[in-house]
Amino acid sequence: MTTMKKNMFPPGLVNNLQDVLSKKGANKNEQKQQKDDDSTETSTSSSSTAGNENDSSKPVVLVTNGEGVDSLGLVYLVQALVGLGLYNVNVCAPHSDKSASGHSLTVRETITVTQAEIEGATAYEVTGTTVDCVSLALSGALFSWTKPLLVISGINRGSSCGHHMFHSGVIAGAREALISGVPSLSISLNWKREESQESDFKDAVAVSLPLINAALRDIEKGVFPKSCFLSIEIPTSPKANKGFKLTKQSMWRSTPCWQAVLANRNPSAPHFMGNQQSLGLQLAQLGRDASAAGAARRGTTPRKNEEVESVGAAKSDNKAKKYFRLEFLDKEREATDDELDFKALGNGFIAVTPVLVSLQLESDIQTAASSWISGVLSGGAEE
């Protein structure tokens, strides 16, 4: 079942999704046949593909995510793309979970890049954010290619609907790619702790592949939308999805709840902080000792910007400390427009939301803001 309206969305995108759904069964058979036909070739060439990322006969697909290079969503997605044998699959993903890092870059610090082992792919893990990973990968400093055909960010655990797009690391990865001029998709699975299981990620990959293949095909044809990236939200039970549905970003968000952590009620928190502080003080002392010893050997004083001195930032004091922990609480979702992302997702559809990068205001908002600013400035001038 497919529900679409040809209104604000690019006609090419609507036709593309309709074509994907109408040929869904055929695509599965074709992919299976392709996989069977290429199994021998893939097995013999996977190691060479990992070592040679510039196979000019295949387009490059870059995969990242917000949860880390070892997360199941990324691993299963990469395995599926490699198994098709159609693409050079490259991975540049965070070393650890950065799923709520938003569109943050690491500046004034050095990040570390380490080669990761993912069969059939050239993969790196980065001690930075998802945006760091995409920016570094597209810079030309890490990979030898100039730019990939498509960037896929995901598959992440948990929805990125509504205002969660602003917090989401997986959304930020796709957004950074589009800012850099590369078409991109972000993919999230509406994971629920009580219902979901690891196999759902494999099912999420299976329902995503037709859209990924269609996107790559249309990018090569030059008909894929260039002004937006696509946020793909997969329902909790991927196999039982009702089809793709074009949606709009909603205003929905979970309610942030900051809770105070008391020492007498949660002894583990101050104990943990105490250990961290103690470790910091020990490192600071070691840093000062090493700095002094080095200065004595050289007969000079250490420079102000010496990195070892920065470790001394940890200070011992007797000031009272307060501890807080952030949790998000799901609030009641009102029955609103069926074309909003969270509404379609809750109804079992795969919600596909075009997301713009440019901050263009609607005409009525522009008019209202201009009127208010003009009134304030003219009033201020009269005073």
UniProtKB/TrEMBL annotation:
<feature type="region of interest" description="Disordered">
    <location>
        <begin position="1"/>
        <end position="60"/>
    </location>
</feature>
<comment type="similarity">
    <text>Belongs to the SurE nucleotidase family.</text>
</comment>
<protein>
    <recommendedName>
        <fullName>Survival protein SurE-like phosphatase/nucleotidase domain-containing protein</fullName>
    </recommendedName>
</protein>
<dbReference type="Pfam" id="PF01975">
    <property type="entry name" value="SurE"/>
</dbReference>
<dbReference type="GO" id="GO:0046872">
    <property type="term" value="F:metal ion binding"/>
</dbReference>
<dbReference type="InterPro" id="IPR036523">
    <property type="entry name" value="SurE-like_sf"/>
</dbReference>
<dbReference type="InterPro" id="IPR002828">
    <property type="entry name" value="SurE-like_Pase/nucleotidase"/>
</dbReference>
<keyword id="KW-0378">Hydrolase</keyword>
<feature type="compositionally biased region" description="Basic and acidic residues">
    <location>
        <begin position="27"/>
        <end position="37"/>
    </location>
</feature>
<feature type="domain" description="Survival protein SurE-like phosphatase/nucleotidase">
    <location>
        <begin position="61"/>
        <end position="253"/>
    </location>
</feature>
<feature type="region of interest" description="Disordered">
    <location>
        <begin position="292"/>
        <end position="312"/>
    </location>
</feature>
<dbReference type="InterPro" id="IPR030048">
    <property type="entry name" value="SurE"/>
</dbReference>
<dbReference type="GO" id="GO:0008252">
    <property type="term" value="F:nucleotidase activity"/>
</dbReference>
<keyword id="KW-0479">Metal-binding</keyword>
